[in-house]
Backbone:
C-alpha cells in the first residue's frame, strides 16, 4: 500500500488503518454533500451522518467545515498529480504538447466527474485554506515538480513562473467554459481555445 500525503489542515493525523479509512469516508461524504447541498448548507453533522461515523470523529480531524473542505481540496490535488503521473508514462520525454494536453484533460475529467470538485477543485472556488492563500501557486509548483524532468528542464524560478501563468490562465478560461456550456460539461469551443492559448504561450519556453 503506497503512502498517502495527508492534508495539512488535519487536527490529528490518522495512525491506524481504521482511522485512515474513517478519514476517507468523511472526505468522500463531504464531497458528495457539496454536490447535493452546496458549501453554505454543508454541516459537519450531515457529513458525519453520511459517512456513518460519530460527530466526534469529524471533530477529531477537523475544527470546522472550512478545514474539511480544504482537506478535500488537498486530496483533489494529490489525485490530480497521480493521474498526470500515470499519463506521463505513455508520453515520450520532451513531448511538451502531449504533456500539457494531459494536464488539461485530467483537470477537465475531474471537474466533470469527481464529487465535489466543481465547488472545491484545488481550493479556488470556495474560501478554503489559509486566508490570502494561493491555490494556483500550489498547483503550479506541483506541476513544475512533476513535469520538469520529463521535459528536460530545471524546476527553477523561471519555469515555476511560466507554469503559474499557464495555470492562472487555464483556470479562468475553464471556469468561463463551464459557465457558458452545458451544466457539468463546459463549452468545447472555449476549451479548445484554452488549449490553443496554452500551446501558443508555452511554445516560447519549450520549442
Residues:
Amino acid at each position: 500500500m503506497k503512502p498517502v500525503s495527508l492534508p495539512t489542515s488535519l487536527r490529528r493525523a490518522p495512525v491506524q488503518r481504521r482511522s485512515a479509512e474513517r478519514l476517507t469516508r468523511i472526505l468522500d461524504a463531504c464531497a458528495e454533500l457539496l454536490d447535493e447541498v452546496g458549501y453554505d448548507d454543508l454541516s459537519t453533522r450531515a457529513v458525519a451522518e453520511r459517512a456513518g461515523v460519530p460527530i466526534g470523529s469529524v471533530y477529531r480531524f477537523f475544527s470546522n467545515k472550512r478545514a474539511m473542505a480544504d482537506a478535500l481540496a488537498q486530496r483533489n490535488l494529490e489525485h490530480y498529480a497521480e493521474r498526470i503521473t500515470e499519463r506521463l508514462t505513455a508520453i515520450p520525454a520532451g513531448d511538451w504538447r502531449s504533456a500539457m494536453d494531459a494536464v488539461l484533460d485530467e483537470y477537465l475529467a475531474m471537474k466533470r466527474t469527481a464529487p465535489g470538485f466543481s465547488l472545491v477543485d484545488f481550493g479556488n472556488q470556495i474560501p478554503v485554506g489559509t486566508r490570502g492563500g494561493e491555490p494556483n501557486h500550489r498547483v503550479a509548483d506541483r506541476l513544475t515538480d512533476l513535469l520538469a524532468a520529463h521535459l528536460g528542464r530545471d524546476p527553477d524560478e523561471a519555469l515555476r513562473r511560466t507554469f503559474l501563468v499557464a495555470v492562472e490562465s487555464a483556470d479562468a478560461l475553464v471556469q468561463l467554459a463551464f459557465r457558458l456550456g452545458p451544466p457539468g460539461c463546459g463549452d468545447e469551443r472555449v476549451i479548445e481555445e484554452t488549449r490553443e492559448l496554452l500551446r501558443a504561450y508555452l511554445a516560447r519556453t519549450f520549442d
Summary: The longest helix spans residues 65-88.
